[in-house]
Amino acid sequence: MTPIAEFLVSILAIAAFTLVLYKTTLPGVVRDISAAAMRGLSAMLDSELDDDGKEAAIRGAGLALIAGTFRASWRLVLALGAAAAAVLLAGPAGIAAPADTLALMLRVDYILGVSAAAIFLGWAVRRRAGGAGAGAGADAAQTGAGTATGYGFGDRFFHMLAFSGAGFQRAMARLDDRLFARRIAAVPDLLPIFVTSLARGGTTALLNAFHEMPGIATHLYRDMPFVTAPLLWSKLGGHGRRSVARRARAHGDGLEIDLDSPEAFDEVLWKLYWPDHYGAHAITPWTPADARAAARDSLARHFRKIALLRRPGRLAAGEAPVRYLSKNNANIGRLDLLPAMFPGCDIVIALRRPAAHAASLLRQHRNFRTLHAEDEFTRRYMRDIGHFEFGALHRPIAFDGVEPGADTADPDYWLRYWIAAFRALLPVVGRCHVVTQDALRAHPQATMQALAARLKLDTGGLDFTRHFRPVPDTAPEGLFDPDLLEEAETLYTALAGHAVR
User: What is the DSSP pairing of strand 323-327 with strand 216-217?
Assistant: First the structure.
């Protein structure tokens, strides 16, 4: 019996242990246990669940944990038995004494060496699998498999903590204000730019184009989940150190995101300060009477914080202005309030042809109904950040003519919603900057330069063509009621007459 024999037997024992765990699907059991624990935590930290709902959810999660622990235990016992059999049978066979093999396996250098080899082997296997299955992974992300955020267990816990209630979010905002009061006070009030439309109107492409301009400050994905305390989270969360591989959005629109991609998160603040507008079935539009000085001041401070994070050098130089940019689809319900709260602000309206726009809304609604049914965390994530446009979360903004509770599977529902939203825009369109998707597709550079000139923005010589699809916008034939579509087209023509050229 030699040390080499003992080593080979030890490797055989590890292989037997690993094989049994794999064949008995222990990784899946562990994932089930983690999911049950997450459901319990989610229920405890969900401010929108009542006590009875929390109790039922926690009880169900507890039973699942007990069952999962039992399922994991017998698998571990069986795997340990397989490893022990390999070691014990090697003795009578004259290969290696069990005591010597066990002594080898308990040595620190052996444990470290085998652990390092296992980590390297796992990394190599994952890298090979990732390279071979990149297309499948992209398809999964596009159809919403998993979550749109790529959150792991720890990320989900912090998300649930950050969104555990309005009181916690307000407390975090106040703490952020106090810790960084001097820096915030040194930033002058910013003239915000509000980019809005109904969802699928082209606001994300505009956001991406604006984000690259040297004087624009926007939210990034890395500002999640402590949105109300962005400066503090930038220190605690390691801005610039956390990284996530680029992945397709759950919308299936071909856009890819990572932590440094811009996104709309300020709806979190509107939910915090105007909770009464968010009904169970619809969102009430805002009027100038909804202006609240304390909320306005809090929003203005928040805008300055994002400017500090995104454009510190420009602010320090003090020679050129910085403007906060909000891409928020719900702002289409605040077109009367925004100028009252932020005099001098600019509002950019993304205008898309009604048939193509309504058809896209219907597709995304179907997509997210499936996604929300498959992934409860993604549903909660979107609810927490105030994305109520689609799926199980759909709550329309209650413009005149909108019927909450109507059949959202009917294509004409979405065309009626388009008409109601953009008809409400007509009285204020003269003080907005309208930009059509047709113009952005056909002449992206000229259109963006004209829009930037209106907003008095320095484009920095950027090439905007890569942000917009260079093909005409299309819509399916015969999807909508002809009379309804004619009404929508007439409204579109009236609004497009105000478009930037």
Answer: parallel
Structure tokens belonging to residue 338? 């925004």
Of 439, 434, 501, 499, whose CA–CA distance to 469 is shortest?
439
Q: Is-above-0.85 flag for pTM?
A: no
User: Domains in the chain, please, with CATH?
Assistant: 3-132 (no CATH), 153-496 (3.40.50)
Q: Across the chain, what does the average pLDDT equal?
A: 86
Q: What's the Cα-to-Cα distance from 459 to each of 62, 205, 213, 299, 314, rounded to whole Å?
A: 56, 16, 5, 26, 15
Question: Which of 112, 111, 105, 110 lies closest to 87, judged by CA?
Answer: 105
Q: How far apart are CA 211 and CA 424, in angstroms?
A: 28
Q: Which helix (H) or strand (E) holds 195?
A: strand 193-196
Pairing of strands 346-351, 247-248: unpaired
**Peptide bond before residue 225 is cis, with ω within 30 degrees of 0:** yes
Q: How far apart are CA 71 and CA 26, in angstroms?
A: 8
Which parts of the chain register pLDDT below 70? 1, 35, 38-39, 41-49, 126-151, 153, 238-258
